[in-house]
Design goal:
binds pyridoxal-5'-phosphate, 13 strands, Aspartate Aminotransferase, domain 2, 12% strand, 424 residues, four-stranded antiparallel sheet, 3 domains, Aspartate Aminotransferase, domain 1, alpha/beta
Length: 424
């Protein structure tokens, strides 16, 4: 994408939109409106993706089956609920670079992290540390710390938090790899965000997985900010497990059911401890209601409960649009669109802000994190008042994400116009 020569004019943004092969997808989503009824500039897909206009009919179809069939909807519905989650397996597998049996849609993100750790965080006295980013999402920190405590370890020394070098904002990959090499024999689990929620930094997951495995560690990723954003190849990268939510870049709606990946080498490992529930039990005998648990091979064996059909219906609406657009094309546009945001911000001479996110497009997704040295919170509030929606992360970060599905070059242009007018 280095070949794109951006220009600063509004005309350039309009021309880029006119030439964008994915431009029509914008029409498939509802945009929040300002008080005067005009559409907002929505740059917050890293937090909650927009509603596909088709979500309602997908959900209503299930409401209708419930209305007409009651419990029989499990077997005789248009899409029988008994196997409904499986309608999402192939699409999800394509999106994260997995085999269908390696993925399952279930629960929500933090729950899935815990369930995965029950099986894959198996500390010994020698090897018990967990490595995370120092700036990991709080829920991940709580989950890791509580797992350590649960197993009788003190997070103060068993939780290894990766920190940038002093004066730097992002982690250096060489430092991560060096830490794995020096401390690897005491590390049980490496668990990083595929893209860090705060800095927007994306990691070389293949290299980290390899380095971790060379030292005998389990390697996992929280893909909350990576699923639907980056091109992922979880199977090929040999990641042990991953979990993500579906309400950010996947547009599944607030609180939507999450996703989970378990590498196929663990699919039939009967020695793994796990917390079991009936939905993970072998389907052919599930309704015999016997007392002994027999796991479905693969990721589905980690299911506990029958999942929310209405939530999965909304997610299917979005996943069907992902299939039409194709994650490859979306990623290509994303690199160009975020590059354009970076280009325009770089043209602003103000010293009041700086971009924290890596400059290399391979090491980030749609989001740019902008550190504002003073008055940032009020800038964010004023942007939202003017119908330009991004968000604020304490102490000083404005997160801005042009999402290739529904954002345009003109959205980016208007954001930078509004933002620049608020700087002093
Ligand atoms: C959004 C996000 C979460 C949220 O967790 P839920 O269990 O879905 O509420 C957790 N971790 C990361 C890294 C996130 O970005």
């Amino acid at each position: 994408m280095a070949s794109i020569l951006y220009e600063t004019t509004e005309h350039f943004a309009a021309e880029m939109d006119a030439r964008d092969p994915l431009a029509e997808f914008r029409q498939r989503f509802y945009f929040p409106k300002t008080a005067d009824g005009s559409a907002c500039v929505y740059l917050c897909g890293h937090s909650l993706g927009l509603q596909p206009k088709t979500a309602r009919e997908y959900v209503e179809s299930e409401l209708k089956d419930w209305e007409l069939l009651g419990v029989e909807g499990h077997f005789r519905g248009t899409h029988p609920w008994l196997r409904y989650h499986r309608l999402l397996s192939e699409q999800t597998a394509r999106l994260v670079g997995a085999k269908p049996a390696e993925v399952v849609v279930m629960n929500s993100l933090t729950v899935n992290l815990h369930l995965m750790m029950v099986s894959f965080y198996r500390p010994t006295t020698q090897r018990h540390k967990i490595v995370i980013e120092g700036s990991a999402f709080p829920s991940d920190q709580y989950a890791m710390k509580s797992q350590l405590l649960y197993h009788g370890f003190d997070p103060a020394n068993a939780l290894v938090e990766l920190q940038p070098r002093s004066g730097e904002a992002i982690l250096r990959e060489e430092d991560i790899l060096a830490l794995i090499e020096t401390e690897g024999s005491s590390i049980a689990l490496i668990m990083l965000g595929g893209v860090n929620y705060s800095s927007g930094q994306g990691f070389d997951m293949a290299a980290i997985a390899k380095a971790g495995h060379d030292m005998g560690c389990m390697v996992a990723f929280d893909l909350a900010h990576a699923a639907g954003n980056l091109l992922l190849k979880l199977h090929e990268w040999d990641v042990d497990f991953a979990a993500w939510c579906s309400y950010k870049y996947l547009n599944g709606g607030p609180g939507c059911v999450g996703g989970c990946f378990v590498h196929e080498r663990h699919a039939n490992d009967g020695t793994l401890p796990r917390f079991a529930g009936w939905w993970g039990h072998d389907e052919t005998t599930r309704f015999k209601m016997g007392p002994d648990f027999h796991a479905i091979p693969g990721a589905e064996g980690w299911q506990l409960s029958n999942p929310s059909i209405l939530s999965m219906a909304a997610l299917r609406a979005s996943m069907d649009i992902f299939d039409e657009a194709g994650i490859d094309r979306l990623r290509t546009k994303s690199i160009s669109l975020t590059g354009y945001l970076e280009f325009l911000l770089d043209r602003n001479p103000s010293k009041q802000f700086e971009i924290l996110t890596p400059r290399d497009s391979q090491r980030r997704g749609a989001q740019l994190s902008v550190r504002i040295k003073s008055g940032g919170r009020s800038i964010c509030d004023r942007l939202i008042e003017e119908g330009v929606i991004c968000d604020w992360r304490e102490p000083d970060i404005l997160r801005v994400s042009p999402v290739p599905f529904y954002n345009s070059y003109q959205d980016v242009y208007h954001f930078v116009q509004c933002f620049s007018a608020m700087l002093h």
